[in-house]
């Protein structure tokens, strides 16, 4: 699959039918557009997981990081880096990101969540 460089520098396959608008929409000022973009990524599945993990780890916008964490549990096949990325996000400077990461970690790997103190 080819990947396209988005303003957020996410490596997301651009040849998937639902992705042509999504990378640019993740940073949109309109919350409804961002929500639709994350929802689309969640439906795409494993092909979008790497981009979501990258957004969670590297994006400057707390809204984007929290959204990425929230969508990760909806993807069936998690990349091996999803759990460590979520654990890392538990120390994010933004409370919304930390909360989203905790919720996602409990859904993806309850044992890992318990191990790091997520209740």
CATH topology-level fold name: Leucine-rich Repeat Variant
Could you give me the name of the CATH homologous superfamily?
Leucine-rich Repeat Variant
Q: Describe the main β-sheet briefly.
A: 2 strands, antiparallel
Which strands sit side by side, in order, in the main sheet?
1-2
Measured on Cα atoms, how large is the radius of gyration?
Answer: 13 Å
The CATH top-level class label: Mainly Alpha
Task: Describe, in plain words, how this protein is organized in 3D.
This protein has seven helices and two strands, in the order E-E-H-H-H-H-H-H-H. By secondary structure, it is mainly α. The protein has one domain: Leucine-rich Repeat Variant. Helix 2 (31-44) packs parallel to helix 4, helix 3 packs antiparallel against helix 4 and helix 3 (46-58) packs parallel to helix 5 (82-89). The longest helix is centred in the first third of the chain and has 14 residues, at 31-44. It is globular, with a radius of gyration of 13 Å.
């Amino acid at each position: 699959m080819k990947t396209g460089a988005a303003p957020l520098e996410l490596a997301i396959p651009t040849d998937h039918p639902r992705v042509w608008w999504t990378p640019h929409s993740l940073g949109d000022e309109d919350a409804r557009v961002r929500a639709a973009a994350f929802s689309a990524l969640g439906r795409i599945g494993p092909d979008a997981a790497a981009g979501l993990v990258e957004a969670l780890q590297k994006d400057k916008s707390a809204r984007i990081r929290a959204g990425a964490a929230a969508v990760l549990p909806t993807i069936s096949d998690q990349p091996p880096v999803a759990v460590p990325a979520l654990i890392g996000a538990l120390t994010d400077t933004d409370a919304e990101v930390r909360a989203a990461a905790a919720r996602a970690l409990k859904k993806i790997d309850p044992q890992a969540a318990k191990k790091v103190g997520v209740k």
